[in-house]
Amino acid sequence: MIVTRSWLNEWIDLSTIPTERLVKTLNSIGLEVDSVATYEVPQKIVFGRVLECEKHPDADKLSVCKVDTGDGIKQIVCGASNVRAGLDVVVATLDAVMPDGTLIKPVMLRGVASEGMICSSKEIGLGDVHDGILELDGSIGKYTRGQELSTHPIFSDTVIEIELTANRGDCLSIRGVARDLSAAFDKPLRDRTFREDEDKRVGIGRILSLWHENNLDVEIRYKAVDIKKFVLPLIMKIRLTQLEEKKESAIESLMTYATHSSGVILRAYEHSFFCAAGETMAKISLSRDANGFASIKTKEKVASIVGVSQEDISKVTFSEGLVLIEATYIAPDVISKKMQEKKIPSGAVYYRASRGSEPDLNQGLNYCISMIDSFSDSSVYGGTIEIEEAYDDKIISISKKEIDEIIGANIDKAKITKILKNLGFDTTKSSADNFIVAVPRYRHDIVNKQDIVEEIVRLVGIDNIPSKPFTFTEANSFNDDYRNYKKRESYRHKAAYNGFFESVHFVFDEKKVLQEYGFETVDEAKELLNPIVNTLDTLRTTLLTGLLKAASNNSKNGYASVKLFEVGSVFDAQRNESLKMALLLCGDRELQSLSNAGKPSKVDFAFFAQKLSNVIGSFELREFATKHTLSHPYQCAEIFVDGESVGEMFRLHPNVEESLDLDVTYMCELDFEKLPYALKTAKTTSRYQASFRDLSIVMPKNMPYEKVKDVISTCAIQELVRFYPVDKYSDAVLGENMSFSIRFVLQSNDKTLEEEDITKAMDTILNALGSELGVGIR
Amino acid sequence: MSLLKQWYDAIQEAQSVDKIEEIRISVFGKKGVLAAEFARMKEAPDEEKSKIAQELNVHKNTLMNELTARKIVLQTLELQEKMRAEAIDVTMFNSSSEAGALHPVMQTMDRIVEYFSSMNFAVKTGTMVEDDFNNFEALNLPKYHPARDMQDTFYFKDEMLLRTHTSPVQIRTMMSSKPPIRMIAPGAVFRRDYDITHTPMFHQVEGLLVDKEGKVSFANLKFILEDFLKYMFGDVQVRFRPSFFPFTEPSAEVDISCVFCKGEGCRVCSKTGWLEVLGCGIVDPNVFAAVKYENVSGYAFGLGVERFAMLIHQIGDLRSLFEGDIKLLEQFR
Question: Is the model's pTM score more than 0.80?
Answer without folding.
Answer: no
